[in-house]
Amino acid sequence: FSEDPYLTKEMAVPYIEGVQSFDVAACVKHFAANSQETERLNVEVEIEEKALREIYLPAFYDAVKKAGSYTIMGAYNRLYGEYCCESDFLLKKILRDEWQYDGVVISDWGGVHDTKLAAESELDIEMSVTDNFDEYYMAEPLKKAVEQGIIPESRIDEKVTRILTLMMRLH
User: Fold this and answer.
1) Which residue has the higher pLDDT, 74 or 4?
2) Which of 34, 55, 62, 164 could form a disulfide with 9 if both were Cys (CB 3.0 to 4.6 A apart)?
């Protein structure tokens, strides 16, 4: 909605509440520090954590904690050496642990780069722009990794549980 963190959260919260009042999931994006279009698929964002928390995260926090957004979409960029859609720092430490988010995390289209990292992260759904769906990182490659014991089936169970919870929230 804006580059101003206060204005964004003030506009986002009622918007999310309104959308979700009609059994439609709002999807807040792009989590986080997605502030440029040039090389946005590959850029490594360098920002101090204090600035991240004061400028980039407040609107996401309110979208999650005040509005209860059912879904959140990761960003393309890297932050602290991790792609945002596979980021332990963003998705586990901040989103799931600190903010206690129980909604669904969705990748940006083509924002996943590694099957193991995606599976081990708090990402639930991979989206992409190509029609080779079985080849997506979280499709056949993930199935093979589970069958080979590289990824525990319990990680998939957690992701599926969040997706089913979303479906129940949407009636």
Assistant:
1) 74
2) 62
Amino acid at 87: S
Question: Residue 115 — very low, low, confident or very high, per pLDDT cuts 50/70/90?
Answer: very high
Residue of 23, 108, 114, 157 with catalytic role: 108
